[in-house]
Every structure is written in C-alpha cells, then in structure tokens.
Specification:
Blueprint lengths: L1 H19 L19 E2 L8 E3 L14 E4 L16 E7 L5 E10 L9 E7 L2 E6 L10 E8 L4 E10 L4 E10 L4 H22 L1
Antiparallel strand pairs: 1-4, 2-3, 3-10, 4-9, 5-8, 5-10, 6-7, 6-9
Length: about 200
C-alpha cells in the first residue's frame, strides 16, 4: 500500500514538473517591462546594455515591443568578471541536476563595412556556453540560438557579454525552460504504479 502510494506520488510530482517545464524562469526575458527589471548590468562598461523600442535600424523581435541593446566598444567588453565587462546578468532559481533549454535571439545593426567586430559570449553558472564571433545576421532580421545547460545548484547566474563596435546589437526573448522527462520514463513510472496496484489487490484477495 505504502509502496504503491509512493510510486503514485512520484508520478504525480513528475506530472506537475512536466507541466511546469514550459515555464520560462527568466524574469523579463523579453524586456517588455520597457526596462531592465530583473536584470543587473555593469554600468562601468563603455556602452552598457539598455532597453529600446527602436534604435537606429534595430527593431524588436516580431510580436515584441522592446529589446535590449548595446554598442560596447573594445575587447574589454568581453573580459569576464572585469570592471569593463559589458555584463547583463540575472540569477535564476534552478533545480540541482535539472537540464534546461536556454534560448535567445540576436540582431546586428549597421550594414556592409559599417559592421565592425561583433561578439556575444553567454555564461551559465560561470561557464561559457555560447560564443558568437561574429554575431551573424543584419537588422531587422533576428537569429535564434539554443543551448542545453544543467544546473549545479539551486541558483544559477545567466550572463550575456556583448561587443559591437562601431555599431550596435540587439538581444531579445531570453528564455530558460526545464527539459521534461522523456516519454520512456513516464511509461516506466506508470507501469510500476500498475504493477503495485495489481500486487496489492492479489494480497487483499
């Protein structure tokens, strides 16, 4: 009885986890608050991240009204954990050992010879998980990037370091969602519950 109830609880909790897996754990990841609510930026960067509804030839991602933008100049923009790092960060509440899908969109301002060095480095828990050099795409088009990351604690720092000189780049629709359990595990858990229920009935008979 207790064994069956325990398995049922596991399946139920797994179901709740799967239902929540599609929830984005990033606060204001689409910057629709029209500011950097939920984010922290390094104001000492040459051109720190800001939020705009339009900026020169940059526009929001389709369906959005705002985006984050930077035009930070020089290699110091990418010097991780330095005073000049053009860092846009957020500390996320995560589950130890849980895998997550990180996704975001970028766009480059300027065109032709006007596009200088453009780089974007992304860090997860202090480890670099994405390095774009150069950042592809030209405004108004956006390019989507995804990476699978794993939490090593109950809180994880997500950080974007950007450089685009002498022009500018956009960042939009940042999302981190839990990877759901595979269907095979669901079937295994459901089968164990069924076997437990049948065994309990036989003992009762």
């Amino acid at each position: 009885m207790k064994w069956t109830n325990t398995l049922f609880t596991i399946v139920l909790l797994s179901g709740l986890s799967a239902a929540a897996s599609a929830q984005n754990i990033v606060t204001n990841g689409d910057f629709e608050d029209a500011n950097l609510t939920g984010w922290t930026r390094n104001n000492s960067a040459s051109v720190p991240w800001s939020v705009y509804s339009s900026y020169h030839d940059l526009v929001p991602l389709s369906g959005s009204s705002y985006f984050a933008e930077t035009g930070c100049v020089g290699t110091g923009c990418l010097a991780y954990e330095s005073s000049t790092a053009n860092d846009l960060s957020q500390t996320l509440t995560t589950v130890l050992g849980q895998s997550y899908t990180l996704s975001f969109y970028t766009s480059n301002g300027g065109s032709g010879s006007n596009i200088g060095p453009s780089e974007l480095d992304v860090y997860w828990g202090g480890a670099q998980v994405v390095a774009l050099n150069p950042v592809p795409g030209v405004a108004p088009a956006y390019t989507m990037y995804t990476a699978t990351v794993t939490a090593t604690g109950t809180s994880t720092d997500l950080e974007f370091l950007g450089r685009q000189d002498p022009m500018w780049m956009a960042l939009d629709d940042v999302s981190v969602t839990a990877v759901p359990l595979p269907a095979s595990i669901w079937l295994m858990l459901s089968g164990l519950v069924g076997v437990g229920a049948m065994a309990r009935k036989r003992r009762a008979a």
